[in-house]
Amino acid sequence: MADDFVYAIKRHASTRVQAPVFSVFSAYVLGLKDYGALLHAEDRKLLAGLPASALDKPFLDLRRFPLAGAEAPDPHTLRIRILGKYPQWPYWMAMTFLAPIPWEADAFYAQPGMAGQGMSLETWPVGTGPYMATVYEQDRRHVLERNPNYRQDDLYPCEGAPDDTPELLADCGQRMPFVDRLVFRAEKEKVPIKSKFIQGYSDVPEIERPEWGIEFHADADDSEATRRLFAERGFRFPRAVDVSNWYVGFNWLDPVIGKGDTPEQQVKNRKLRQALSIAIDWEEYVRVFPNKGGEPAHGPLPAGMFGSRHGTPAGFNPVTHVQVNGEIKRRPLADAERLIAEAGYPGGRDATSGRPLVLNYDYQRIPTPELKAEMDWMVKQFAKLGVTLEIRATDYNQFQDKMRKGRQQVFWWGWLADYPDAENFLFLLYGPNAKAGNDGENAANYANAEYDRRYERLRLLDDGPQKQQLIDEMVALLREDAPWTFGFFPYSASAFQPWVHNGKPGVMVRDMARYYRVDPALRVAKQAEWNRPQWWPLGLMALAALAVAWLARRVFMARERSTARGRGATGARAGEGAGA
Fold it and tell me: pLDDT digits over 116-137, tens only?
């Protein structure tokens, strides 16, 4: 029903829901910002007199309050009014943020006692998807079963990407989903997840995670025996470049590595950032750390979306790379040494005081042995130019607090696109989106008036030549200013058993399970073949037991004979003495 979509939009303004995209929606959906203030006031009235710790709260019925920007004139018509033009809105309509929610479900879970029993939309969701939850055992086991009321027009696609195999389109036009039941068992460690997959006891390591294939690719590269085993068993690890990135950023607010206070200092700081961007060898990084495999980035936009020139002759970063005989190579270290000297730090020392340049590297996780190797590698990259890099690794909450206050200097960060539009990456460097002060997603706090003006035009444009030109200009500004060392675009690779068909890593949408088709007979056969009982250890144990028994008997008999001889000799001597 269209009313369910309207109710879902209203819930983003509710105080009862954590809605991370409310700030985005309220900027475009007519009246949503004021609607949020209204709901806050109404909720305070409902909660008046209740302790803050109360689990049961009166039902906040959003139907009582109309929203100007969303309405349902009839059960099958949804009307949303947007402020101005926003070409990205159709992407939001396809995301879970706008999944329909019936008011009856909200009212049901607001009943007294529900919250105390852990009953909520989070644990027992209500929706219209292909599966419904039938078992919920927290941190142990979850079961989804086919929704008997699921729509019948959800058919398997007949067209795919250019590199899709004919097998991947074999179910063209067939009604989905193909699998009747999905069983999830929570595993807390990586080793048992991998072992159960290799033994055939799981169809996929994790239903929605697209990085397990990278793990298995790395295992195969490390061992020829492992490679043969994976090939013999028919495991498939299809791989693609994900619509995400990892990078090292520089805080624009920092006096040493950031923008700079004067025009002269701005030039010096920019050359320092450029020198470091050349020195950090991302091509080496993806080779040395295969579990973080991907393609070195020359800008903020991964391949697969309009405006990206990644992987094309025109797509390389001339600040950090050069083209030699048609091949793109990282600039020699001498170029970085020249730039850092011009920045006022020849050999990594302040030209005036002679003191070594020390930079702080903020990392968002506690350094485990695996992560420490990556951090040591990063320290070596800066050391190429004589720069000392101090590691400041913290837990994620502390790291986030530091980022919000703008106290970082050099930091590790990444982004997973919400939708495949250049705007969703370029807004990460839009000045008003600064993390410090505005709590936005511009983690580098980068601010460039020329970039911001172009971004404000870009976000209103449909794909076309004008948008491409703006993107090229904005990327050129970023390469010159170097607020990031662009890092790499990680691979997305899933892992599938030979009996799982239609397996493909989900780059944007993580609902791959409704496409999967499973051959249960082949699964049973392969499980039996791969896990045949080994009887020879039992035979060996039996022989060992017989040997132990024989040795024990031999020792016992020898002891008995020795005792018997000892007793006989004593008796004879005693008799001889008596007779004498």
Answer: 888 888 888 888 889 999 999 9
Asked whether the bond before 58 is cis by omega within 30 degrees of 0, the reply is no
User: For residue 461, what are the contacts with CB-CB under 8 A and spacing of at least 6?
Assistant: 87, 467, 470
The answer for residues whose C-beta is within 8 angstroms of residue 17's C-beta and 6 or more apart is: 11
Give the residues across from 410 on adjacent strands: 250, 361
Report how far residue 355's alpha carbon sits from residue 357's, in angstroms, rounded to the nearest whole number.
Answer: 6
Residue 344 φ/ψ region, left for φ over 0, alpha for ψ in the -120 to 50 degree band, beta for the rest = left
Express each pLDDT in 420-465 by its tens digit: 899 999 999 999 999 998 888 999 999 999 999 999 999 899 999 9
d(C-alpha 5, C-alpha 418), whole Å: 20
Per-residue pLDDT at 222 exceeds 80: yes
Q: Tokens representing 441?
A: 């997603």
Contact criterion met (CB below 8 Å) for 167 and 504: no
Q: How far is Cα 284 from Cα 301, in angstroms, rounded to an integer?
A: 21
Q: Answer yes or no: are the C-beta atoms of 13 and 22 closer than 8 Å.
A: yes
> What is the C-alpha to C-alpha distance for residues 330 and 298, in angstroms, rounded to an integer?
11
| Mutual angle of helices 449-458 and 465-481, in 10-degree steps | 150
| DSSP per position, 85-142 | --TTHHHHHTSGGG----HHHHHHHTSTTTGGGT-STTTS----SSEEEEEEETTTEE
**Range from 40-49, 91-100, 251-260, 356-365 carrying the lowest mean pLDDT:** 91-100
- What is the longest distance spanned by two Cα atoms in the chain? 133
**Which band of pLDDT confidence, cut at 50, 70 and 90, is reported for residue 570?**
low
Q: Could you report the per-residue pLDDT of 455-504, keeping only the tens digit for each?
A: 999 989 999 999 999 999 999 999 999 999 999 999 988 999 999 999 98
- Burial label for 25, CB within 10 Å (0-12, 13-18, 19+), is buried
- In this prediction the pTM is 0.82
Which two three-digit tokens encode residue 96? 């879970």
Give the span between the Cα atoms of 488 and 282, in whole angstroms.
7
Task: Determine what percent of the chain falls in helix, strand and coil, rounding each to the nearest 5.
Answer: 45, 15, 40
Checking DSSP bridges between strand 500-501 and strand 410-416, what pairing results, if any? unpaired
DSSP string, 337-378: HHHHHHTT-GGGB-TTT-PBPEEEEEESS---HHHHHHHHHH
Compute the distance between CA of residue 238 and CA of residue 504 in angstroms, rounded to an integer: 6
Per the document, the length of the chain is 580
Contact present, 202 and 279 (Cβ < 8 Å): no
Angle subtended at Cα 168 by Cα 167 and Cα 173, rounded to the nearest 5 degrees: 100
* Among the listed residues 501, 494, 496, 497, the one whose alpha carbon sits nearest the alpha carbon of residue 526: 497
Beta bridge partners of 517: 501
Residue 485 forms beta bridges with which residues?
A: 248
